[in-house]
Amino acid sequence: MDRKEARALAEKLVAQMTLEEAAGQLSFRAPAIERLGIPSYDWWNEALHGVARAGMATMFPQAIGMAATFDPELIEQLGDVAATEGRAKYNAASRHGDTDIYKGLTFWSPNINIFRDPRWGRGQETFGEDPMLTGEMGAAYVRGLQGDGPVMKASACAKHFAVHSGPEDLRHEFDAKASAKDMAETYLPAFEKLVREAKVESVMGAYNRTNGEPCCASSALMDFLRNQWGFEGHFVSDCWAIRDFHEGHHVTENAVESAAMAINAGCDLNCGCSYEKLVTAVRVGLADESKVRESAVRLFTTRYMLGILGEGSEYDNIPYTVVECDEHLEAAEKAAREACVLLKNDGMLPLDMDKIRTLGVIGPNADSISSLIGNYHGTSSRYITVQTGIQDALEGKARVLCSVGCHLYKDRVDGLSACRDDRLAEALTVAENSDAVILVVGLDETLEGEQGDTSNPYGSADKRDLFLPESQRRMMDAVLAVGKPTTIVLLAGSAIDLGEAGEKADAVLLGWYPGARGGKAIADLLLGKASPSGKLPVTFYRNEQLAGMPEFTDYSMKGRTYRYFAHEVLYPFGYGLTYGDASVCSAVLEQKDGKPVVRIEAENAGDMDTDEVVEIYVQNEGSSFAPLNPRLCAFKRIRIPAHGTWTGTVPVDPRHFLVVDEDGHRTQDGKVVLYAGMGQPDARTAALTGHKAVPVKTM
């Protein structure tokens, strides 16, 4: 049903409730109201990269890997997979009377915060550092989750609103200060797109303050949402964020004042226990009963739109057997293949198994399930690690020798070992007896993630630098010194500087956290069954460049991300090699149905068919308001055959031709210049790929 009809039903229902009953519905564990026929419902559900924390489900690559696909159509399909499995699991649980946490249809995903600093542990949950890419990928996932039928398939949530990206250990007390320009240019565009265009049903506030106001009770942020963008869905607090008002931010004195502050500002749903004080807040005159009832109406509007208050829908017939069905697993595997970014290849990849009789697979992430799943993950009925994927692919064809090599971050694998590096001798022996070596290294959710959800040995969920732990660095250096052809497979959710190991290795393949069975996709790429085609959604800096960046707590964008960074980086945003050799030959700006498109002619001079991503960048030359470097304004994933060509058009939203002034207003300024290529129009990308982006000609 449409929102108008659903709201009318919600208003009628809430009007029959007492104040106590209505207030009780505003906490994430909403109790049943038997006299009105309302079942209990738990609003807290997760689907960051597949249904999470609710038992078995198809697991996609972590969100940062999904972003690296630059494939909104696939991301929308994955959103639909998550919604379909969420419905199947909800149907099954409901039949057994199970309405517990993580069993509902209101998914608190996607995370569309901007990954502005490479040290942020939760950056893996995002779609990267670029507002345009984040908005496109986030909107696609929302469309997939919510569907386009008369009943909403699932409810998506844009989080965390807004200006939120670490440090994790300060989030409950921190005030993120951002200029009007940075707000309009960087921190708000993705949220606006998801509200205006994707019609996201929910928005979650952040823990921190933004420009002095707690995000879950910010008049400025609520004005953007409700008044400027026309948001009609419900607003939810991050978990126990309202408690932070008096315990962390000290803008209120106690829980009653905090609850009143949040409800008065328009926070409809409390993840936490603060709204247990709402009735008291009303009775002592700190909050108005009408605010409580309006929030209850918004929440029941969502439940009616989901068709879960007795009226039913076509989704009630989705069987449990769709969970981890072949179609869903194939979509996840496709995403894992498209997500992998080939950072370096001196000719070692794809592996020539006619010349390799014994392959060594070494490293703490080679057979690690944790390095597949990232955080906010579900549970799989089967996991395929990189080691397992290679073993399966080479069974009966070649010998695979294996060693963990070292602990992920400790100086020894066995706590009883007398000496550090207690698996290094084995790793060296494997390398010595192999024709080629695959080093599988990186991080997992114990080393980068959300505060409280990691066992990060450095004391927080953020990274202190861009290097791998010392145990891995020692192991890589030693194995590389053996002198065998070596590929590094890097499993991590953020920028890593491999140091000398990255320079010495013959190839480097970035697999992110590829999902439960991502090891198969990585093995297929290593063996040439498909070509890597992912692109970096974040900049890979050199570790020493951190010293010249703004403080982690500084939310100014100057000196951050590819748009404002002034120096040559390790690997640029938008970069990624393939087994082909594709480039843009010509690009012309045209009009199609009154809208701008760039007509592209591209060629693949390589010997292998490959997917590629055409990227369009814009710069406003002569404008004092434009970012330092050209910025992404359009992209399209394409397929180019070996020694073949591709011709087609890439639509460009003309709003990206505008710049943002210091007051946060979008305006025409400077000469608009476009570039088209398989990466940024910068010298580093040209040096790494051997191809320059071409200027877009105008008709």
What fraction, in percent, of the residue positions are helical? 25-40%
Strand order of the largest sheet: 9-14-13-12-10-11
Basic shape: globular
The unreliable regions are none
Average pLDDT for all residues? 97
The CATH superfamily of the domain at 332-540 is identified as Glycoside hydrolase family 3 C-terminal domain
Radius of gyration: 25 Å
CATH topology of the domain at 332-540: Rossmann fold
Q: So what's the CATH class of the domain at 332-540?
A: Alpha Beta
Mind summarizing the main beta sheet? 6 strands, mixed
Distance between the termini: 46 Å
Beta strand %: 15-25%
* DSSP helical segment count: 21
Task: Specify the structural class.
Answer: alpha/beta
Total strands: the figure is 24
CATH architecture assignment name of the domain at 332-540 = 3-Layer(aba) Sandwich
Describe this structure in words.
The chain is of the alpha/beta class and 699 residues long. Among the domains are: 209 residues, Rossmann fold; 117 residues, Immunoglobulins (Immunoglobulin-like, Sandwich). The chain has 21 helices and 24 strands. The strands form 7 sheets. A 6-stranded mixed sheet has the order 9-14-13-12-10-11, with helices on both faces. It has a 4-stranded mixed sheet with strand order 19-16-15-24, with no helix packed on it. A 4-stranded antiparallel sheet has the order 18-17-22-23, with no helix packed on it. A hairpin with a 2-residue loop joins strand 6 and strand 7. Helix 4 runs antiparallel to helix 13, helix 5 packs parallel to helix 7 and helix 15 crosses helix 19. It starts with a helix and ends with a strand. The mean pLDDT is 97.
